[in-house]
Specification:
single chain; Rossmann fold; 6 helices; 4-stranded antiparallel beta sheet; 272 residues; 25% helix; 6-stranded mixed beta sheet; alpha/beta; globular; Alpha-Beta Plaits
């Protein structure tokens, strides 16, 4: 694992605020409550994708508790080194990704969720492994506090982009030419942050478009395509058309269960 935490909020953790970050956040108890609800969705014998970040780790703890109490069998795969360590600590058996053709259900957090259940992820630095595992998931459940709900992705957080280190100057220059503000993530000591995969992570903020052909957040599929067209870009934190359900811990103590509109999802799992 990198020796220090990234200087932005982990998915599900708004104690390290981004731009215009809500000052209120779901409590640990509220996240554990929706984590327990998600853990109750897991059926014996299923293959489970374990997400990363504060809310997802609450789910992992609750799943470990349920497994200890019920002795249920399951197989899991983790989206980060931190989640691997937590899964081992709470008694959840892990299997290598190369042994799996699909994942029955994955549970993860998010930095932002829009009304269409599109996600912005990557604040915890695990976006590549998350997207790989969740692309295999037949069902993706997202657990978040109410502060993660936004009208438009990019409201509080930048778009996180994992890049090849060699290509970082070229990608940065291209994105800046698009009118974006690009900042490489750094550790507390100023050293360049590296993901679990050994790659740098860029924080990319897109302002309102001044030119018709300028990429922007008002057309997320087009922006995702443009980003992936750049040599050196490995993956982005835009998770479009991934989530099936979202459990929201509201500030008033209630839980909202949002589901994707019937017929909206365009891909069948596994998504590869």
């Amino acid at each position: 694992m990198p020796p220090s935490s990234p200087p932005v909020a982990e998915e599900g953790d708004s104690t390290k605020p981004g731009r215009h970050m809500a000052t209120r956040a779901a409590t640990v108890g509220q996240l554990e409550h929706i984590g327990a609800m998600a853990a109750a969705m897991i059926q014996p014998g299923q293959i489970v994708g374990l997400g990363s970040g504060r809310a997802a780790h609450a789910f992992v703890r609750m799943l470990g508790r349920r497994r200890a109490e019920t002795k249920m069998s399951l197989t899991a795969v983790a989206t980060s080194q931190a989640t691997e360590e937590l899964a081992h600590a709470v008694g959840i058996p892990l299997t290598p990704l190369e042994t799996l053709a699909y994942v029955d259900i994955a549970v993860d957090g998010a930095d932002e969720v829009d009304p269409q259940l599109n996600l912005l992820k990557g604040g915890g630095g695990a976006l590549l492994r998350e997207k790989v595992i969740e692309s295999l998931a037949r069902r993706l459940v997202i657990v978040v506090g109410q502060e993660k709900l936004v009208d438009r992705l990019g409201t509080h957080f930048p778009v996180f982009v994992e890049v090849v280190g060699f290509a970082m100057p070229v990608v940065t220059r291209t994105l800046t030419g698009w009118g974006a503000t690009v900042t490489p993530r750094r550790q507390a000591d100023g050293a360049l942050y590296k993901t679990d995969n050994g790659n740098p992570l860029l924080h990319v903020r897109f302002e309102p478009r001044s030119q018709p052909d300028q990429p922007g957040l008002d057309d997320l599929p087009a922006l995702e395509r443009r980003l992936h067209s750049l040599p050196g870009v490995i993956e982005t934190g835009l998770f479009l058309d991934f989530a099936d359900e979202v459990l929201v811990a509201n500030f008033d103590g209630t839980v909202e269960h949002r589901r994707r509109e019937a017929g909206r999802k365009t891909t069948e799992a596994p998504r590869v």
